[in-house]
UniProtKB/TrEMBL annotation:
Molecular function terms, GO-annotated: 3'(2'),5'-bisphosphate nucleotidase activity; magnesium ion binding
The protein's Enzyme Commission number: 3.1.3.7
SUPFAM superfamilies in the cross-refs: Carbohydrate phosphatase (SSF56655)
Binding site for Mg(2+) 1: E73, D93, L95, D96, D218
Binding site for substrate: E73, L95, D96, G97, T98, D218
Residues annotated for Mg(2+) 2 binding in this entry: D93, D96, D218
Protein's name according to its UniProt entry: 3'(2'),5'-bisphosphate nucleotidase CysQ
Function: Converts adenosine-3',5'-bisphosphate (PAP) to AMP.
């Protein structure tokens, strides 16, 4: 770990990107079999793929940065008193979009974020089915790597006069339609998981509003990629979006290009 001007070294970044891909491979090893689904305490679905990815990521992060703690969807029961003063920590969703995974539509991701003083300063999102890899961070900007190995710096489209909104395939709301009516939205795309943040970061969409509940690991990596591409993310009232709260449940948020 280097100073805060670069956050991590190039070698550490390479290792982290490989780790996300390894987790994705673990997910696909389950995706290509008969998927068995159980329910968490909140009745949301859980598959073996969640656990496989979680184990790969936590083992890799612990080896790479043993001094940095981890908050993960599959390892989230850390008391607030323990984590409230953490300067750095990892915020991880081993499989974002479990419902999309179960539907077999390919719209699920691996999310890894590095937090510094409760702000996402590095985000990595890997889409296992397509092989697309997105990452963004302080000092490096935001990037997309394709399965074929192409690498491009990506930027939010801050000059568009007609906007494309992107929303959840599984969680659309009436409040979303009401808020989007305030903006020059001419088209709407529905897609699952944190891919929505990536579409804004690469200029393929311009606004994403989420009214329904999410968890901090659902948004941290996507926020970093969007923000370091030139987009903004806040609460709908414009106030900063907060992390490492006593409850890890998120309120509503708004992501915009520029």
């Amino acid at each position: 770990m280097e100073n805060n001007t670069s956050i991590i070294s190039p070698g550490e970044l390479t290792a982290l990107l490989l780790l996300a891909k390894q987790a994705g491979s673990g997910i696909l090893s389950v995706y290509n079999t008969d998927i068995e689904v159980t329910l968490k305490d909140d009745l949301s679905p859980l598959t073996l793929a969640d656990k496989v990815s979680h184990d790969i990521i936590t083992e890799g992060l612990t080896a790479l940065t043993p001094a940095i703690p981890i908050i993960s969807e599959e390892g989230k029961d850390i008391p607030y008193e323990t984590r409230k003063n953490w300067e750095y920590y990892w915020c991880v969703d081993p499989l974002d979009g479990t419902k999309e995974f179960i539907k077999r539509n390919g719209e699920f991701t691996v999310n890894i974020a590095l937090m510094h003083n409760n702000t996402p300063v590095l985000g990595i999102i890997y889409v296992p089915v397509t092989g697309d890899l997105y990452y963004g961070g302080e000092g490096i900007g935001s990037w997309k790597e394709t399965a074929e190995g192409g690498k491009t710096q990506i930027y939010a489209d801050v000059k568009a006069t007609e906007w494309i909104s992107v929303g959840s395939r599984s969680h659309a709301s009436a409040e979303e339609a009401s808020l989007l009516a305030r903006y020059p939205v001419s088209e709407t795309i529905s897609i699952g998981s944190s891919i929505k943040f990536c579409l804004i970061a690469e200029g393929k969409a311009h606004i994403y509003y989420r009214q329904g509940p999410t968890m901090e690991w659902d948004t941290a990596a996507g926020q970093a990629i969007a923000v370091y591409s030139g987009a903004t993310m806040s609460r709908p009232d414009g106030e900063p979006f907060e992390y490492n709260k006593p409850s890890l449940l998120n309120g509503s948020f708004l992501v915009k290009a520029g």
